[in-house]
Specification:
- By secondary structure, this protein is an alpha/beta fold.
- It is built from eight helices and five strands; from the N terminus they run H-E-H-E-H-E-H-H-E-H-H-E-H.
- The chain is globular.
- It has a three-stranded parallel β-sheet with strand order 3-4-5. The protein has a two-stranded parallel sheet with strand order 1-2.
- Strand 1, helix 2 and strand 2 form a beta-alpha-beta unit.
């Protein structure tokens, strides 16, 4: 959800967003509660308004090439794929994207960040609330830990990464250099 938040905020500021979705499954957020009459969730509609969507199978050479052909044309790549290996094995990690577009900015969201002892572990909002201790301060006194009512870590991580991407665009205007933005749910918590 944090990755969608990055691009939602950037779309609201006027950026052209091309969202890459996998065939067959697409974005699972379409089915989050509350599902509207059109079969899409209210959350999905709100976070994807103003975005273009492209369905590409990045597990095929043709699909991967479509994505790589887009990279020289973009300012920012935002990703929320989970672990660094997912992009690296496809040649879509920051180092490889820079070969296609030396000025590209990459905003990445993960559970634990791209470095450190847990960088290769995946995670999601509820797990990070528990892992960081956020759940221990939520709920009734003398009760078990409770998940926050809203996905606060996803929302804030997306916000921090969107702000970082915008700061990176300003930095690139002054220096000509792109950079990597690394946001993690754990750091936000």
């Amino acid at each position: 959800l944090a990755g969608a938040g990055i691009t939602r905020m950037m779309a609201e500021l006027g950026a052209d967003i091309i969202k890459i979705e996998l065939p067959d499954t697409g974005d699972g957020a379409r089915f989050l509660p509350v599902v509207l009459d059109n079969g899409r969730s209210a959350w999905f509609v709100q976070h994807n308004r103003g975005k273009k969507s492209l369905c590409v199978d990045w597990n095929t050479p043709e699909g991967l090439q479509i994505i790589k052909d887009l990279v020289p044309q973009v300012d920012v790549v935002a990703e929320n794929t989970g672990t660094p290996e997912i992009l690296a094995k496809r040649g879509l990690d920051y180092e490889n994207l820079r070969k296609l577009n030396p000025n590209v900015i990459m905003a990445s969201v993960s559970a634990f960040g791209r470095s450190g002892p847990r960088a290769h572990e995946a995670g999601y909002e509820a797990l990070m609330q528990a892992f960081s201790g956020v759940m221990s301060i939520t709920g009734e006194p003398d009760s078990a830990p409770v998940r926050c009512g809203v996905s606060a870590l996803d929302i804030m991580t997306g916000t921090l990464c969107a702000f970082g991407a915008i700061a990176a665009i300003l930095h690139r205007q002054k220096t000509g250099l792109g950079q990597r933005i690394d946001g993690s749910l754990f750091d936000t918590s």
